[in-house]
Each structure stands twice: as C-alpha cells, then as structure tokens.
Amino acid sequence: MELILEQIPWIVMPIIFPLIGSMACFLFPAKAKSLGLLTSLVVLACVTRLGWQLKALGSLRYPMGGWGAPLGIDLYADGLSLLMLLMAALVGLGISIYSSSYFSRDKARHFWPLWLFLCGALNALFLSADIFNLYVTLELLGLTAVALVALAGGADALIAAMRYLLVSLLGSLFYLLGVALIYHSVGSLDIAILAQRVEPSPAMWAAVGLISTGLLLKTALFPMHFWLPPAHASAPAPVSALMSALVVKASFYILLRMWLEFFQTQGGAFANFLGLLGAAAVLWGGIQALRQTRLKLLIAYSTVSQLGYLFLAFPLGTSIAWKGALYMLFSHAMAKAAMFMAAGNIQFFAGHDRIAELGSITQRLPLTLTAFALAGISLMGLPPSGGFIGKWLLLQASIESGQWWWGIILLLGGFLATGYVFKVIAHVFTHDEPTSRTVTLPATMEWSALGLALIAVLLGLFTYWPLAMLEMGSPFGTGHSG
Fold first, then answer.
1. How far lies 267's CA from each of 89, 280, 398, 428, in Å?
2. Cβ(290)–Cβ(419) under 8 Å?
3. ∠ CA 152-224-182 to the nearest 5 degrees?
4. pLDDT for 307-338, tens place per residue?
5. Transmembrane ranges (predicted)?
6. Residues 225-261: tens digit of each pLDDT
7. Domain-wise residue ranges, the chain
8. Where are the beta strands (DSSP E) in 85-140?
C-alpha cells in the first residue's frame, strides 16, 4: 500500500481535485454543497501527503507529460510553496464549511463551481515553475475572483467587480510585458534557468519594474489599494474572506518567489522602495480603518494595513525577516478569514454592519464575538498569537540589521490595529440594544469562523512546524529551484 501511495504524483493532486470538483458542482448543482465540502477535505489530505514527501526530499520538481523545462511544463514544490498550499487548504476548508450554510440554493449553484475553480488555479499558481504559467494561473485566479465578487448582486457589488476586473487586467498587462522582456533577454521562462542566467541590465530593470507594478496592483499595496476596500466590503462574506486571506497573497507569492530567485540581484534601492510602500500601507490602512463606520470596510482597510507588513522584509532581506513576513502572511490568512466570516455572521443576524448599531448582538452571538476577538489578537500582534511571532521575527531582523526604523513601523501598526479592533469591541459591549429580529444563525457559520481564529492564535504556541516547513528545499538560499 505504501508503495502505491509513493507512486502517486501528489504534487498534481491539489490542482486536479479542485478542477474535478468544480466541474462536478457545475454538472450536479443539487449536490454542489456535498461535493464542495468533500473536495476541500480531499485537497487538505493531498497537501498533507505532499508535505510528507517534501519532508523526505526537501523539494520536488515534476515534469508534466514527461517533458521537462524548457520545452515542457514543470511543477515545483518546496517549503515555501507547501506553506502557501497548506494556508489555502485550511482557509478553503473553513470557507467551504461556512458557505454550506451561507448561500441560498440559487447562489450556491454559482458559488461552488467558481470557488473550487479558484482553488485549483490558486494551487497551480503556488506550484508553477515558470513565469508564463504563473501569468496564466494568475489570470484565471483574477477572472474567477471577479465573478465571485459580482455574486452578491446589486449595484455596489457590480461596480466593485468591474473596477477589480479593470485593475486585474491592467496588472496582468504589466506583468506580461515584463515576461516578454525577460524572455527576449534570457531566452527562457523557467525560474530555475532564469536564476542561473539573469544578469543586471537595463532590460532586466525594466522587466522588474513592469512585473512588480503589475503584481503590486493585484496585491493592493498602497497607493494601488483603491480597488480592494469596495470589492471586499461589497462581496458576500465568504468571498471577502477568500479574497483577503488568499487571492491577494497569490500575487505577493509570485513577487517573493521571483525576488528570492533573481530579482534581488537588480539592486537594493528597489527593496527600500518596497519597504517604504509597505510602511505607508501599514500606517495609511490603519488610519483609514479607524475612520470607518461600517464593519466590513473597517476589515477591508485592515487588510491594506496588514499587507504592508509583508513588504518590510524586502529591505531587511535576511532569512529571519522572510520567515517573519511569511509567518505573518499565514496567521493573517487565518485571522482575516475568521474576521470576515464573523462580520458575515453579524450582518446575517443584525441585517446591517453599521458599527455604531451593533449592540444588539452582545448576548446573542457569543461564538462569533469570540472569533472576532481572537482574530483581532493576532492582527494586533499580541502574544501568544501567530501575528506576534511574525512581528517578533521582523523586529528581531530589523534590530540585527541595524535598520531599527522598520521596528517603529511595526509598533505603530500594532497600536493602530489595537485601535480599530477595540473600536468594534467597545461598540458591541457598551451599547446593549434591544432587537426584534429573530434570525437563527447556523452553528456551522459560527464554528468555522471560530476554528480559523483559534488556528491564528495557536500558531503562536506551535511555531516549530511552520518554521521547519520553511526550511524544506532551502527557499531562502540559492539555486534551490533546480
């Protein structure tokens, strides 16, 4: 039995099963909920099995159809891609459980095929080994995400989806132009080959600028974040959760992967520029979150702020800094998905998300409020949460490298996060208002949010496995993709 399991190309399974599940949900909409939940469980199992393979091998390269690079399409997995796959699988399972009770029958028949297709595209992106296939998967991801945002219906959602579509297409255009420049200069699209051949040149600097601009647009890094708050605020709650937790992380992953392989040779000034944009995002997003009067908009601007932390690792450039940023990325995915789910529960129960009028939920949604508070602990960076570990590693890196000013940004961002999290909690617990609504919230919607929030906190206690995962294949070394 063990021999049979070893023969299975597990690196392909996280891509194939969601695509099969998506087609099955499209063909059998009456069974979509069951098929979607089953697919999410299978994907998590496949990622776990792939993790065991990587524990033994360190990294894995798989030529699709038997044709290797540069002629064929290769898949590549190491600790970095495994962390992203595990993040997507855990959040995906939580979103699937939540969505099984959230959507009406009519919207569910559209949601499940789109969501599982997005899951397959996301996993393919994390496993792609060449920059053109990264473009293809990124484009599929963006188009599917646009359709999911529009699923809410109404003018606001459609306008937000159209704005997101235009930004996504513009970002893809910049990225593709950069890919064309690289191919013209180097003659290959495979990341491992590029890592060996790329040399500083005007063409490469232009390619780095174009690709980075496209990816930063899709990541919604300040000041290119204008599309994110309306899209996240107007989308259905589970779509907001997957957008904030997963979709915007995909373009960051591509930028990070390219940076680790060959972008960082193009000079340190660009790294400092990314750090400055990240610092501005932390402060601007936090201030805007404090100013919001609607819960989902507050959480959306919080995403703008939290994404900024990830870019502080670029000017630091050490292994500790990268690990800190990725630990924050992982814990933020859990916390922000939980927070958007909690906001969806509150909106489902109260009929609105106006922060000043949320006193009616104080005694009625204890699990939801607990999930929101636990997620907030991680976003604030308080111990013993995963957010604390990520910030601690970044702070350690900034002190060790002598770049102490990034540590000040970390502290200021923590204060701002404390402000906007407690703004919500204060309104909920100090304004107990009567309500005539008799809405019953499905237990799965509360427990799925609480489960992800607990993971975000427990990441601060169980640090060994995530950090050990990031050592597989030495993703922060050199020549590791070959």
1. 35, 21, 19, 49
2. yes
3. 110
4. 999 999 999 988 899 999 999 999 999 999 99
5. 7-28, 35-55, 75-98, 110-128, 134-152, 164-183, 203-227, 239-260, 266-286, 298-318, 324-344, 365-384, 404-426, 447-467
6. 888 898 888 889 999 999 999 999 999 999 999 888 8
7. 268-482
8. none
